[in-house]
Write a structure and sequence with these properties.
Chain lengths: ~350, ~350
């Protein structure tokens, strides 16, 4: 394979050790993505023997020279900043470093979210014009999906950071989700311009001045599921709490259904009759197909998946990385931020 | 009626003009409360003719001298601070002023929430030791109810304010909900003590030092419904957004069910079979029985109800005011805050 050919392809590294079901789901998902788009140049980081075992078990063929052996593993419970310092030969550190060094375009992991964010931010560095990278989350809404930025890349944001989230989020949602001129809302405690906290009152003024985004003003908590905006920007503290709160809703619904069923035999029958329908109704809330969320604003494509990522989720994360690369999102972020004056 | 007798009773004023279904629901709910506890001395504020019409229509007897006639009405869309200045002869301003002047112990309204908060805070004043009053919301959880303080009385709190919410919230939940030594959590982005924003990191240290509350440390967004704490304290900006987000869940569930039903005749039948069961399962999420939430920290009992309050909700709000009075919550707040050093 000539050097020329390598660089013309989109080079994606997948963290084979990342996620609760690693290496199996990570390896299988990565290979599935490769099979559905052979123009990807795929690399796997992790313990070579473990990776090879999965490949053999599932009868998958994969070049040995595209497996980057790393001995250490950053666990879900490792402290992110500590892990970066002490586990230099881990799949996450090595993956992010290779992107930084220009040896790959994208890094995909369902491993320790904090470590993945720290590695991407600290090792890849930030795009010119970005004060803080942001991680978004797609939340199913009444009309489609609402993308919430930021859901925890950082806290105590400055107004300027919310502006960056709005600019990068708009480009991402337009290019990847295909929504023309996506509506951007600012999360606040009331629709009126006078409502908000110190951060949002200042951010509101700045967001109103930006020409290239479709800013619709303040939105409230009820507007997230209400589908009023395609993108909602907020500080990572509130975004993170909202996301975890939203994710817990289906869990409590299940508990309530169980509690109801336990009350009587009649209830048990009622629940049996309802279960299938309820599952179908709630199928939109299934996070799997969304396939991880990118950390926007770093100099490289970094896609972070849920620890429980399935094979399909990993596959979709890799394909999303490919799409972000092909559509030159990083270059578009930098241009838009420079046009804005950052 | 002698003066002596008046002051020994709990004197509660109900805003007859407050709520989307006023004066009917307010008047009927207030009379229902009076019937279930005749030891209450009830007053109604609002347009006397309108109140009298409801009383006549539903054949309810009520002393004319306990109707406090006010000509102006603060609408749901009125700006709170403006309304206080320009509508001095409104049911909300007159009701709060009478509590301030010692002519009543409690004021109950399902009217304009902002105006009710502003009137209670500015007219009644704050209890000694309270920097900021707080409004809580009971959110149904896996194990019972989680009381979230603050859900919008103020934003940009200082750590000290979260401490006050924790102290008053603990007393309220122990006395009114009957939960012995209720667990208090601090809303943050991770369980670890190192996780949080500037506000929560400082508040955490202060909360750990308080002897008379059962502080369990940081809790996350998923722990609200998860039932990890009986009380969760947070800044009013995030609390308000969370509350409105939570309230919108059932709405989107209904929309999703409808969308599913519209897809085919079979789906329509499935939904018909499921509807009743789902309603029963979700009955805990019915806000009506909670009967409004008090604004804690003001010098007087102030209970604020949802605009859509039913007759039962208003009844429960009045009975809650009575209970807060009988259990001397205001005195207990002041003592606890003074013991803490405020």
């Amino acid at each position: 394979m000539s050097d020329n050919l390598i660089t013309s392809k989109c080079r994606i590294i997948v963290d084979a050790m990342g996620g609760d079901f690693a290496p199996q789901n990570a390896v299988r998902g990565a290979i599935e993505a490769l099979n559905s788009d052979p123009s990807i140049e795929l690399f796997l980081t992790g313990r070579k023997n473990d990776i090879r075992s999965v490949l053999d078990e599932f009868n998958l063929s994969f070049d040995d020279d595209h497996i980057i052996n790393t001995e250490e593993v950053i666990d879900m419970c490792d402290s992110p900043t500590n892990a970066l310092k002490t586990k230099k030969d881990s799949s996450i550190v090595v993956g992010a470093t290779r992107v930084k060094n220009g040896l790959a375009d994208a890094f995909v992991s369902a491993g320790n979210t904090g470590a993945m964010m720290a590695a991407s931010t600290l090792l890849m560095g930030r795009i010119k014009g970005v004060g803080r990278p942001t991680i978004g989350a797609p939340i199913p809404s009444q009309t489609g999906v609402c993308n919430l930025f930021d859901v925890g890349a950082s806290v105590d944001s400055k107004p300027q950071h919310l502006v960056e989230y709005a600019i990068m989020g708009s480009i991402y949602v337009e290019e990847i989700d295909g929504i023309k001129s996506p509506k951007v809302g600012l999360l606040s405690v009331g629709e009126e311009e006078s409502k908000g906290n110190e951060l949002t009152l200042k951010a509101l003024k700045m967001l109103k001045e930006i020409k290239n985004i479709n800013f619709i003003g303040n939105v409230e908590g009820k507007d997230i599921l209400g589908g009023k905006a395609d993108i909602i920007v907020c500080d990572g503290y509130v975004g993170n709490i909202l996301l975890k709160f939203a994710e817990s809703f289906l869990g409590i619904l299940k508990v309530k259904v169980k509690q109801f069923a336990f009350k009587s035999l009649l209830n048990k029958i009622k629940v049996l009759l309802m279960k299938g329908t309820l599952k179908q109704v709630l199928s939109d809330f299934n996070a799997e197909d969304y396939g991880g969320t990118p950390l926007l604003g770093v100099k490289g494509i970094s896609i972070i998946g849920h620890g429980s990522s399935s094979v399909t989720a990993i596959r979709n994360m890799v394909l999303k990385a490919k799409e972000m690369h092909d559509k030159q999102l990083l270059q578009k972020f930098e241009k838009a931020l420079s046009d804005y004056g950052n």
